[in-house]
Amino acid sequence: MNFKKEYNLLIAPLIKSSPIIIGLMVVAFLGMRRAITYMTPEYRAVGAIKINNLNYSQATFGIFGEEKNAVPKQSENFLTEVEVFKSRDLIKKTLANLNWELSIFRVGKLRLVEMEEESPFFIGYQDAAPEGYGKLHYFDYLGNDRFRLRKGGEADSTGMEVAFGEVVALPEMSFTIHKREDVLIKKPNCLNPGDRFAFKLNRMEDLANEYAGGKLFVKPVEKDISIVKIYFNHELPEKAEAFVNELMNTYINEGQQSKEMQADSTLAYLDQQLADVSAKLKAAEAALSGYRSGNKVVNLDMEVDATLKELTQLDLRRIDLDMKYAEMERLQTPLFTGRKLDEYSPNFEALQDPIFKETYLKGQAYEAQRKDLLQKYTPNHPAVANVDEKIRESRTFLNETLVSTMGNIRAKQDEVDQNLVQLSSSIKRYPEKERIYVGLERDVALNESMYNHLMRKRTELAIGKNSDLYPHKIIEHAERPNQIVSPNTSLLYGLAGLFALLLGMVIAYLRSFFKDTIQGKDDLEALPVPLLGSIYNKSKKLQQDGFALVSGLLASLDKLPDNCSKHQGKILVATSLLPGEGKSFTATELARAYAAVGKRVLVVDMDVRKPTLHLNFKVQNQLGYCDILEGRVYALNAIQKTQEENLSILTAGRLQSQNHALLFNRRSLDFIHDFRWHFDVVIVDTPPVGVFEDSLPIMSESTANLFVVRKGFTKKRMVSRIANLVSVFHIPNLYIVLNGQSVNSKVPGYKRYIKKYYGATK
Q: What is the pTM of this model?
């Protein structure tokens, strides 16, 4: 790897553009600091709650299921409870408990700042009309406990004056401003004349949408641990703390109320059943007692007792199945009628099917999700349609499960009925007296067992209703935050700096690509053309003649192979890719250098569009190269002597016919070849070959073609164009000449030595 090349390619552009990069970063930081002042700061409160989602917490207490060896287990649908915290219904109930319907703001130059505990007054309102909600009411403090209410909005500069305690009647509401002495005592400067305030009545729906959006974030600690973390952002730390704590309390209270509602419903059902069974038991006991007294029955054999016990068990089983079937029918009605799943709380233990329970809870979550989506989208939106499809699939599964379960219960009922018929027929073999007695005892035992079973369940349910052995538990109450979490100033400043740095790097590399110039020989290494030599800049501090500037180039030219005959001179062509790179300067200085060493030199100006050589040698541009081409003068007659010895010039002249095709005429080459018999060196200054291709014919027959590249002027990106030009036109004897090289770049200490020799002064 060429370290210097990589340095020039990657590092040097950044160093050169470092002022731009630093300036961009300063502007970015200042702009971001300004932007942060426009942003509303927010505080974050955090709370944690342990969710009770155990199977034994159902209000039914296993009325419909088996209780032996029942081990409470954590429900697998715990993650569903996370969505409950995000539901708008729970958020609305939380906001109703907090009573945040009215907000008071201090009006600043840039934004509104909400006040709560630090507000120097509070506002009581009544008779609020629907159009009064969501509207800002502005007022200014005038001093002496008086305000000016801007009835026409913020732009109203007149308004009406009101005082503390005075009732203000507006079409949309009536309100009164009350002073808070405790706040004014602590902070007497919080209410000064000229301060502007505003208040607004908030719609609960708007607040719920705002808080359920980006302000509230709920997530479980882990999937297998029923602990939920609640994060809430608000510009007031006291409101952030209050909302998190109230949300957890509201969730607990809602769960308790739901449990109590289920318990009350089941208790009412049990009380009705107990009343019916109690009446039947009393009637059965009375009938048995009357039969014993009338028929003097004392005892029956053991076989009758066994048969009675078996019949009693079957009857209890039949009643249990009837109760389950009745619960299924009660659950099937809302499903078939299309009622929302969250409007009905089934007894999941009646089904004893965990998949059914999980699907039911998922259906409830989908309905809550659909309700949230309808706040943003229309019912035809793809997101709503997708949730509707999930709800339909859930309800279809629930209906199929209910039908299947009811079929199973019906089959069990038929089986129990068959057993009852068989046992009843076996009793018929007893004598009439014994058979009647067995029937009466059966009725008593059946009703007594059913009564005891229902009474025990009612007692358990009543105890469970009034106790909460496994409650939801707040394990981390929210505390008032004192750190601002939004905007994240460190992150924003970092992003601003990174953006400025990236933008500066892009500008640096683009600047390097489009404006960076060739600085030395290393930048020309990619060219398939050898570097012949350099032309040095004149130094104001060093008394140098022109020969010293091109002496190295002159020496390199003399080393080139010379295919000319003994009496013919050399043809040197000076060209460049674009104007301004110093081809005319190179031709001039080379001509003077050759003349200085005693060579007979002719300089030919072929740049007919913009001739400059006659200015360098202070001659007239009257007859020249163009006049020869158009036949107005003989070639040798157009040559002019200069003030310098051994140096002649053929100026460009004027192309009167504007026929530039003459420049490609063979005649133009012939008379230049003729000049070689009269001069030792013929130096031709041509147009830039990257713009005009007039010089290509002469370049194909010259001794050496000097392609001038100017340091600090020629763009680096032009190097590839030079290479393409060479490969396309196959120019022979082409050499690169670096113009504008600094004199002190030859060897270390060059400037010191040259001063010594030339006697230059600082």
A: 0.57
